[in-house]
Design goal:
CATH architecture: Beta Complex
GO molecular function, one term: calcium ion binding
Shape: globular
Organism: Scyliorhinus torazame (Cloudy catshark)
CATH class: Mainly Beta
Oligomer: single chain
Strand content: 35-45%
Radius of gyration: 17 Å
Structural class: alpha+beta
Number of domains: 1
GO biological process, one term: smoothened signaling pathway
Number of strands: 12
InterPro entries: Hedgehog, Hedgehog_Hint, Hedgehog_Signaling, Hint_dom_C, Hint_dom_N, Hint_dom_sf
Keywords: Developmental protein, Signal
Length: 237
């Protein structure tokens, strides 16, 4: 019989509507680049895979996929679509998902701030990895629109970020503070980092298929956050 974990201070809920409240996701067809240069759909990722992301200095680096914060293979929902000019890219993400945005054409990481996808506007800039050179460049957003797609996937990496369709995005959502979320998930990241060093545990669980649904830790954090943070801190959804 399956067991649903509970949190200190409150129980985690199993309300299916929670997916729309906490889910910050990409569609199943969204592509990531592995450390070896091959591309793979997020729906085909497994814990332990190493995907490309960007570190604090703006350098493209590999980062380990730890788990999925949300995973719904058959769910059909509306995504926010961002299209850029040069380099040309197209990325889909849920409205409450965080992406790094600047008002100016700059490649300096410190000038990019996390923003809900629903708040991004045309004329702003996001960071795109250029195909060929592999360099990270700012690219102006030329179009924003909504589109329905199938599957929702939210991989969590050790860096808390990843390049999706060569666009730099956060692994987090709902609260417009990437560093807060990264700190909140530190215990979970540490646990998975430590267990990955244990051969017996890793061989039995490292590539295990994660069940559909929101990860229990995400549900607990959302419930706790609603207790201690102002409503204004959360995406309106």
């Amino acid at each position: 019989m399956s067991h649903t974990p509970t949190c200190t201070l409150m129980a985690c809920t199993d309300d299916n509507s929670l997916a729309t409240k906490t889910g910050g996701c990409f569609p199943s067809k969204a592509m990531v680049t592995l450390e070896n240069g091959h591309t793979r759909a997020v729906s085909e990722l497994n814990p332990g895979d190493r995907v490309l992301t960007v570190d604090a200095a703006g350098k493209v680096v590999p980062s380990q996929v730890l788990l999925f914060l949300d995973k719904e293979e058959e769910l059909r929902i509306s995504f926010t679509v961002l299209e850029t000019e040069d380099p040309q890219q197209r990325v889909e993400l849920t409205a409450a998902h965080l992406i790094f945005v600047s008002d100016n054409n700059t490649d300096r990481m410190e000038n990019f701030r996390p923003m809900f996808a629903s708040r991004v506007r045309t004329g702003q800039f996001i960071l795109v990895r250029e195909v060929g050179s592999g360099q990270l460049r700012s690219s102006k957003i030329k179009a924003i629109y909504a589109a329905e797609d199938i599957g929702v996937y939210a991989p969590l990496t050790s860096h808390g970020t990843l390049l999706v369709n060569n666009v730099l995005a956060s692994c987090y959502a709902v609260i417009e503070k990437h560093h807060w979320a990264h700190l909140a998930f530190a215990p979970l990241r540490l646990f998975h980092s430590l267990t990955s060093l244990l051969p017996a545990f890793h061989s039995g669980h490292g590539n295990a298929t994660q069940e559909n649904g929101i990860h229990w830790y995400s549900r607990c954090l959302y419930s706790l956050g609603k207790k201690v943070l102002d409503r204004e801190k959360f995406h309106s959804l």
